[in-house]
Design brief:
single chain, alpha+beta, elongated, two-stranded antiparallel ribbon
């Protein structure tokens, strides 16, 4: 029973991580940066400052949001030098978050990568077909293994 449970969990995680994101091509939507969509500025390592967008404030009902990126018209992310000028940091983050958001919004926008809620059931049916196919192949292998002649 433990082997069956481990196999089920492993198959479930494999489908969730490696199959589900590629069943349908995700959609992309460009949204402006506003005070309702807070921007986080983080120093990932010495000298490297990165701006990233959280999913708070993103209004896509029932959507599965993969990522939110801050980019300019050419698709480039803000550079560390731009961020250090636009968003001077204090001890706990940008000194003035509203000014930081306004400066970022003047040049950049956010691109949301997501699956709409309308794809939920088609994804479920595809996953069911994958698991049924796998179980039929596994069942056939087990049947063959048990029925084969022992030498």
């Amino acid at each position: 029973m433990l082997t069956a449970l481990v196999g089920f969990v492993a198959a479930r995680e494999a489908v969730t991580a490696w199959v589900r994101p590629y069943l349908f091509t995700p959609l992309h939507q460009s949204l402006p940066i506003t005070t309702a969509t807070p921007v986080s500025i983080d120093q990932t390592s010495p000298g490297i400052i990165k701006a990233f967008e959280s999913t708070r404030g993103i209004s896509l009902p029932d959507a599965w949001v993969y990522s939110v990126q801050i980019v300019d018209q050419a698709g480039q992310t803000p550079t560390a030098s731009f961020l250090s000028r636009a968003c001077p940091r204090g001890n706990y983050g940008p000194l003035n978050p509203r000014d930081c958001t306004a400066r970022l919004a003047a040049t950049f926008h956010q691109v949301v990568t997501y699956q709409p809620g309308s794809r939920y059931w088609p994804m479920q049916w595809y996953e069911l077909a994958i698991f049924l196919s796998f179980s039929i192949v596994l069942g056939g292998f087990c049947f063959w293994w048990i029925r084969r002649p022992v030498i």
